[in-house]
C-alpha cells in the first residue's frame, strides 16, 4: 500500500516531471495533442497503464486537450503511484500517443 508523500517529497518529484502542478491533494497536467485521434490514442495508452497499475486518473477530454488529475483516493493524497503515473503520461504525451 502506497503512503502519502510529504510536501518536500512531492516538491522534489515535481522538479523532474513536465507540466505538472500540485493542487492540494492532487497533481494536475493539461496535454494538448496535435489532433483528436492523437488525444484519444494518449488516453488509450494511459488507460492500459492505469489498469496494469490498478491506479486510475481522472481525465477530462475537450477535443484535443486533455486534463489529467491524479490522486490516491484510498490514501486521501499524493503517493508514489501518482508520481509513476504522471511520469508515464509525460512519456506518452511526448511520444504523441
Ligand atoms: C480496490 C482497488 O484497488 C482500488 O479501488 C483502486 C483502484 N484505482 C485507484 N485509483 C486511484 N487513483 N486511487 C485509488 O485509491 C484507487 N484504488
Automatic annotation (TrEMBL):
Catalytic activity: (4aS,6R)-4a-hydroxy-L-erythro-5,6,7,8-tetrahydrobiopterin = (6R)-L-erythro-6,7-dihydrobiopterin + H2O
Superkingdom of origin: Bacteria
Keywords in alphabetical order: Lyase
Enzyme class: lyase
EC number, as in UniProt: 4.2.1.96
MF GO annotations: 4-alpha-hydroxytetrahydrobiopterin dehydratase activity
Pfam families linked: Pterin_4a
GO BP terms: tetrahydrobiopterin biosynthetic process
InterPro entries on file: PCD_sf (IPR036428), Pterin_deHydtase (IPR001533)
Family: Belongs to the pterin-4-alpha-carbinolamine dehydratase family.
NCBIfam families for this protein: PRK00823.1-2 (NF002017)
Descriptive protein name: Putative pterin-4-alpha-carbinolamine dehydratase
Amino acid at each position: 500500500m502506497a503512503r502519502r508523500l510529504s510536501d518536500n517529497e512531492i516538491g522534489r518529484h515535481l522538479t523532474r516531471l513536465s507540466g505538472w502542478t500540485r493542487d492540494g491533494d492532487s497533481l494536475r497536467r493539461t496535454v494538448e495533442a496535435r489532433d483528436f485521434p492523437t488525444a484519444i490514442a494518449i488516453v488509450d495508452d494511459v488507460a492500459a497503464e492505469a489498469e496494469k497499475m490498478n491506479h486510475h486518473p481522472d481525465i477530462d477530454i475537450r477535443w484535443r486537450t486533455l486534463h489529467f488529475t491524479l490522486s490516491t483516493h484510498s490514501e486521501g493524497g499524493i503517493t508514489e503511484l501518482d508520481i509513476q503515473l504522471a511520469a508515464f503520461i509525460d512519456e506518452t504525451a511526448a511520444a504523441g500517443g
